[in-house]
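User: Modeling request: complex.
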Amino acid sequence: MELKLYVDRISQPSRAILIFCKANGIEFEEVKIDLAKKQHHFPEFAEVNPMKQVPAIVHGDFKLFESHAILIYLASAFPGVAHHWYPADVQKRAKIHSVLDWHHSNLRRGSVGYIFNTAVALALGLPANPQAAAEGEELMSASLAKLDSFWLEGDAPFLLGNSKPSIADLALVCEIMQLEFADEEDRERILGPHKRILKWIKDTKNATAPYFDEIHSIMVPIREKLKELKVQASEK
Amino acid sequence: MELKLYVDRISQPSRAILIFCKANGIEFEEVKIDLAKKQHHFPEFAEVNPMKQVPAIVHGDFKLFESHAILIYLASAFPGVAHHWYPADVQKRAKIHSVLDWHHSNLRRGSVGYIFNTAVALALGLPANPQAAAEGEELMSASLAKLDSFWLEGDAPFLLGNSKPSIADLALVCEIMQLEFADEEDRERILGPHKRILKWIKDTKNATAPYFDEIHSIMVPIREKLKELKVQASEK
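Assistant: Request completed. Predicted assembly structure:
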């Protein structure tokens, strides 16, 4: 049964799904929905996802959107996926759902508000809202503190005291990677104090090598372009 | 194994969990965490949920928070729960996850912003933000339109074209019930145009009778109290 991933690698949940498939040997066709070209608003994409967002998948004739739901589906529907990504044990699974649900209203909401209003809006030529950026940073910082003090337990390399990554590690680390679009000093200010999180990012990267870097390589030229745009904006 | 639910019935996800347990014959002890008395900030509750939010559960020595994760856990861990609440089929389950994930950033986010800033803040003596109320209403209305046109398909009484309710129906209907705290004309303006949603609320209520009304009965005196507070505030 053919699997199509409708993604844009600048979108953090799109990257999580691409890395997940590659790391687990799941074959797929990558269909780029170019957000900068507003392709997510094209009528043919509304057939795939009426919410007009990436990522979305089509597997045979089954359509699905929402990245956490997709990760759970892929981990459940493809028999080759290693157990640690989404354990069958009801309590272990519940903890993964709990992190992913928490993510929606905390880290993700903060990160999207901050990065959109400090970087993405500039790249897309849209107006930025400084107050929303500040609120986003506040929520993102509070979320990183909770990750550092609660979700990353003791010396275990992954969330929930696990020795191997789950879909939650991948989803949350890809979100934090969005900070690559921020200015270097801002990134250092927000992320620098959290040594445990920096180690976790590295551990997740290593556990999914070489795909993590391959899929994130798109961020480098965009970051350079954003630097130029910021210089231009400050000279106006 | 003993099940304790840490809840406040004024919280919509708390109500969803209480109704779910009652409708499925799951025995539990209800531990009220009085939000108006800020009991969710008490140190003894941080032992249960370090995020200081209701609902949370303790089942034996297993602790869990985030209401969607709790509903999935209860449906999976208690063998008496009817299949339709959380089907075993991977694709049916994926669709339920998709609705629940969508809910986080849409209906729930809109509803919380709107109801907090038009009613709950007043009840708790906290400052309300009219702009956040307006943004909340806009997002809530857009979400109700998507429910009406997409998630509630054809003539099926429940979400995703189902003939029986799932945990997603319960979670989302309890969220919409929070509009009972709004002024009558506001509720009519927001919800009135959506006949399909009004029918769905009724169908969910009937499918979980008499527990739905029993658990929601707490809203009536609070709504009356809110009316009084609004009159007092307007006379100032």
